[in-house]
Amino acid sequence: MLRLSGRPIDSFCDRHSRRHFLKIGALGLGGLALPEVFRAQAASVNPPRLPSGGLGHKAVIMIYLPGGPSHQDMYDLKMDAPIEIRGEFKPIPTNVPGIEICEHLPRLAKMMDKFAIIRSLYGGVDQHASDMCLSGWPIGPGGNQSGRPSLGSAVSRIQGPVDPTVPPFVGLTIKTGHAPYSNPGQPGFLGPAHAAFRPDGESMANMRLRGITLDQLRDRRALLTSFDQFRRERDFDARMESVDVATRKAFDVLTSSKLVEAFDLDREPAAVRDRYGRGGPEPAFGEDAGPHWMDQFLLARRLVEAGVRCVTLSFGSWDRHHSNFTRLPAQLDRFDQGITALVQDLHDRGLDQDVTVIAWGEFGRTPRINKDAGRDHWPQVASALLAGGGLRTGQVIGSTNRLGEVPKDRPVHFQEVFATLYNRLGIDVGSVTVEDPSGRPRYLLDHLNPIRELI
Fold first, then answer.
1. pLDDT at residue 85, as a whole number
2. Disulfide check for 394: which of 84, 113, 211, 449 has CB 3.0–4.6 Å away?
């Protein structure tokens, strides 16, 4: 946090003391103060970047579905399997001939040409954590993500910020009782300077920045004037003379109208917000996972437009050991609304070539329905949904066997998906390396080939 110490002195007309005013912006990145982050980021090297369309840079929106969504109840229904495998949902046709998906995803079905489904995803482990979905690495001996950086952190290190007042990596994941669901993507050996920039608190209300309104914060000139007045009234404290470039840059971030206004969803027309849906930060079904907070889909779009390269968020509670067929319809409806509104919005705004969207969970669910009308953990196979990024959409990649147990055709490893996401950002994982603390160059992934069908 950028903090200028001093006794509270005269209040502003809105009754905020100058000391309070200058403590705004307690937005944390792994425990480092912003000036420290910018000193570390100054060492980042920006490689050549892909030409961009309307956005001006490439970006990824990563939607984590905590708990492991049921592949055979969303994108891979097995109508020829026995009833104890098949379940209660029916498939519906999509606008791409030959592709069928769950009846509770009707909006997605109508715009399947803008999406790609992977039905044969493998390489997951039986861990309730976001690590695999945000980095391509499970929790291992090295801790979270096996000590490796998440995609957002790697992009922060390799490409740096698009705009010096906008962080390259933002994590919207809120705190959950089961902490591994709350990982927004860790920096691993890259260190806290490349951690996700996170709103301080559990709801967007805290983006009002400790009592300072958005209108106050937008008026940068008034804020800087107050800053100068503070310096004068403190008898020109010598410490102010030592403020370095990194600290001044941190001050610019905290007073950046681009960043603050990106978080101000009230700037969007009501019709746009209604198209996405609203929701809130409460955990889905009161369970220990993510919220049904469709606002975050819209917020992610606003953040990438402001200059963020990677946004992560979590959505829903998908660990359906029981009540699978009574709870999924409501959750699928909300997901269907949020994801299709986001992807259509990107197309409408001319951003579909620049912004890649992925939605997936840590594993699939058991083919056999259990005694509680649920499905249990099944890391043998999972599914993923992708859109945007100039990908070849309107297709299904891979298949599973008759009972949905294992990949049958075209198995796709989690890390192949990450190689594809990095490719869309202009990063060749076959040649780009990052240094670990010992100075050793490390590849970002073990599986280095992007998915050929998509690019």
1. 96
2. 113
Residues 134 and 335: their CA atoms lie apart, in Å, by 19
Q: Is residue 219 part of a domain?
A: no
pTM confidence score: 0.84
Rounded Cα distance between 88 and 13, Å, is 62
The tokens for 359 are 């939605």
Count how many domains the chain has: 1
pLDDT at 338 over 60: yes
38-92 confidence digits (pLDDT tens)? 555 555 545 444 455 588 999 999 999 999 999 999 999 999 999 999 999 999 9
Q: Which two tokens stand for residue 307?
A: 């200059």
Pick from 169, 166, 145, 147: which is nearest to 157 by CA?
A: 169
Contact 310, 170 (CB under 8 A): yes
For the chain, the farthest-separated pair of C-alpha atoms sits apart, in whole angstroms, at: 81
Report yes or no on 451 lying in a domain: no
Question: Three-state DSSP class for 205?
Answer: helix
Look at residue 241 and tell me if it is in a domain.
Answer: no
User: For residue 298, what are the domain limits?
Assistant: 31-199+263-443
Is 164 inside a domain boundary? yes
